[in-house]
Write a structure and sequence with these properties.
The chain is of the alpha+beta class. It contains eight helices and eleven strands. Helix 1 packs antiparallel against helix 2 and helix 2 runs antiparallel to helix 3. It is globular, with a radius of gyration of 18 Å.
Length: 288
């Protein structure tokens, strides 16, 4: 549904930003993903939502972190990008801005799902039993969502939305709302990442992939592999990403057991995969 929603925007001649926003909104509303409704719980039993979006044509960007009542955080990120002079807003201030812009706010109970609540309870029990390595805590139960798009005018855009890590504390913020770490778009490349955010921040993963495409003339798959499958694991992290070039080529690097991913081209046929061995025919360099 997310692929088709984004495709509908592009088919109507709308921008890559419109397509990314439409696709991520669908995923935020789906409780199966760790974004919007279905976000994981913090140590204190709350949902803290992070998001960002970037327009490759202008390099304008918007991001929000630590919000609790914004129904669709990606809409807030876009509003920050388009209707403010800032790039990032956090917490209560971000929600004040959301209300001023007419973005829907909901009771925090909207984000609660029993599945995510039970995940937190199991994790707290395991911690009490000393069954977890605290240095690696909270990486399970991922499901960050993202989208990249190339429109009919050659414009690229990228967006990312997440609930972060299960059992996170102290106002922890990962890579998803950080431009250059979890999200990046310019005139040649669009990137959205998912994984252990601290390592995406330390490697500036999103920007690094796109820099390799710009300066080393690497394709999305090659550049993505160099950062996601080499640089990030070398520091102890893991995760994946979706990467798109201005020529329509795409890459899906990941170093985990699997990653939900998909693409849709000008023919409107969606393609999806989970594991590395799953067949996923990629578009040619001439695809829009």
């Amino acid at each position: 549904l997310a692929l088709r929603r984004g495709y509908t925007e592009l088919k109507a001649g709308k921008s890559a930003v419109d397509a990314v926003t439409a696709a991520i909104t669908v995923l935020e509303d789906d409780p199966h993903f760790n974004a919007g409704r279905g976000a994981v719980f913090t140590h204190d039993g709350r949902n803290e939502l992070d998001t960002s979006i970037m327009d490759g044509r202008t390099r304008k960007a918007g991001a929000a972190a630590g919000v609790h009542r914004v129904k669709n955080p990606i809409l807030l990120a876009r509003a920050i990008m388009e209707r403010s002079e800032h790039v990032m807003m956090v917490g209560d201030g971000a929600e004040v801005f959301a209300a001023e812009q007419g973005i829907e706010l909901v009771d925090p109970s909207w984000f609660r799902t029993e599945k995510r609540w039970q995940q937190l309870q199991r994790r707290l029990i395991e911690k009490r039993q000393g069954a977890l390595d605290n240095d690696r805590s909270g990486r399970r139960y991922t499901g960050t969502v993202g989208a990249v798009a190339l429109d009919n005018h050659g414009g690229l855009a990228a967006g990312t939305s997440t609930g972060g890590m299960t059992d996170k504390r102290y106002g922890r913020v990962g890579d998803s709302p950080i431009i250059g770490a979890g999200t990046w778009a310019d005139d040649r490349c669009a990137f959205s990442g998912t994984g252990w955010g601290e390592f995406y921040i330390r490697t500036a993963a999103a920007h690094e992939v796109c820099a390799r495409m710009r300066y080393l003339n690497e394709g999305p798959a090659e550049a993505g592999h160099a950062v996601i499958n080499v640089d990030v694991p070398a520091l102890g992290g893991d995760g994946g990403a979706i990467v798109m070039g201005a020529d329509g080529r795409i890459g899906f690097p990941f170093n985990t057991e699997g990653m939900f991913r998909g693409w849709i081209g000008e023919d409107g046929v969606p393609h999806i995969a989970i594991y590395a061995e799953d067949p996923l025919p990629l578009p040619s360099a001439s695809a829009p």
